[in-house]
Every structure is written in structure tokens, then in C-alpha cells.
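hiii, so i know i said id send this last week but things got crazy w the move. better late than never?? heres the sequnce for the chain we talked about at the cafe, plus the structure i predicted for it. fair warning i was half asleep when i ran it
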Amino acid sequence: IVDCNEVCCKMNGYTREELIGKSIDILNIEAASDEERKSYLDRLRKAGILHAEAFHKHKSGYFFPIEISSSIVNIGDKEMILGVDRDITERKLASEALRESNELNSSLLHTIPFGIDIVDENGTILFLNEKLEAAFGQQAIGKKCWEVYRDDCIQCSDCPLYRGINVGETNVYETTGVLGGRTLQISHTGMIFQ
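okay and structure toks below
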């Protein structure tokens, strides 16, 4: 390490004096071999800049995720690597929380014992759960709901889409001639999607 800024020191838990002159391996989980270093340098020369995610080892011993952008700089007659490291711990935590939330939502939508779909303001089906998918046995996403569900393929006369969608408002009604002559009770609730 030839030089580092205050952000680098604070992020890794070292003083500048503790880092200058040390091998970059002080920050790595495990030391890179000479072959790995040469391979990385060759790739960097070809690419000009490389972006990667890795883990740094904080002075206190814990590991944290970073995003690294590296490029080659020439200082005098020496070729060096300029590394810009960003601590992405918060981003990783947020991403994991979002993934878990999406998994829970997906699980709920697919296991609830009712047919559920998401239809846009034009009646186009954007999503449907497994219960509803199994009821009509055809690919529905991208089609108009009345083309898929209604035997006559005509939009319901009391369809809430005629009145417009109000977020949070629920309309409940019955419609006949669905999926082979069935009568269904349908609840439409306005929501924000994507």
C-alpha cells in the first residue's frame, strides 16, 4: 500500500501509518498467490478498469462486503493499481431484506387458498397465483382477464375497470359464465404495482 485516504483507514479500522508500506493482503481474507496477482494484473491491463465485489478484513477481525473499482495508474516510471473501495454492508443488508420479503410475499400469494391475480387498468393480467392458474390451465399473463376467465370473452358489464381504480378501495360482485358456466364472487382492490 503506497497511499490511502482517511475514508479507507476509517472503513478498515487502521491508521494511515498502519497501512502504508504493508501488503494489500492485510485487508484481504486470505493472501493472494503470485499467480493470482499476475492474472489479476493481466486482466486489469486488458480491461482498463475492473469492478468486483469482495470482503475486507477489518482490523478488529470481522469481515465486511466491499465493491472494488480498480484501474492502473502510472506514477513516474512505476505502474500501480488505484483501488476505490466502497463498504456495501448496508446495501447487502437491504438487498437480503428485500429478497426475504419477496420470498414471503410470493409464498403467501401462491399458497393462499383463493385465486389471486394482478390486473392493470386495461384489464391485462400481470400476475396470477398457482390456484388461479390451475383453474383455467392456460397461459394468462399478458391477456385481458375477460378473454381468459369468461366463457363469452366479453368484459363484465359491472367491471370495476369501467369506473376506474382507486387505491385501497375494494369492490365485491358476482359474475356468471366463468370457466365453463361457473359463478364467481370477485373482490377487486385497487393497489400500486411496480
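btw The beta strands are 49-57, 63-75, 78-87, 117-119, 125-128, 170-178, 182-189. thought thatd interest u
miss u guys!!
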